Amino acid sequence: MIIKHFRATGALLFLSLCLPQAQASLDLLAGVEAGIETDTAMTNPDLERTQQILSSQQAETSHAWQNADTGIAYQINIKRSYTYGSYPCLAYDLTIIKGDSQDIKSLDACQHRSGKWISVSPNSMAL
């Protein structure tokens, strides 16, 4: 039992030493920040739609949709593309509309090796 715990702990320690400090952000698909602490969070179909829109990389184009199940409308406006190392990245605005309430978030995402767009903070970029 102790050996299993040591192996698991050792493997985690090894991984944490080999991966960049902000590697945990890879778990955040682009769009997940939308209403993360409110009732306007994106559903899986909304996150998939966000991935498709970001993959189009159409700057200065507005992409909007409404989730029929939640009644929440989203709009993505890609402002600009840039690179971080060899990773393509996008700066975009995400507008969230629920009823009379509207929230606009300025966000960044970079495309991971897996092809998924991952939320990143411009201040702590790590892939």
Description:
- The chain is of the alpha+beta class and 127 residues long.
- The protein has one domain (24-120).
- Helix content is 24%, strand content 35%.
- The chain is built from 2 helices and 5 strands; from the N terminus they run ααβββββ.
- It has helices at residues 2-18, 44-56, and strands at residues 62-66, 73-84, 87-98, 101-111, 117-120.
- It has a 5-stranded antiparallel beta sheet.
- The longest helix is centred in the N-terminal third of the chain and has 17 residues, at 2-18.
- It starts with a helix and ends in a 7-residue tail after the last strand.
- Mean pLDDT is 76; it is low at 1-26.
Overview in brief:
By secondary structure, the protein is an alpha+beta fold.
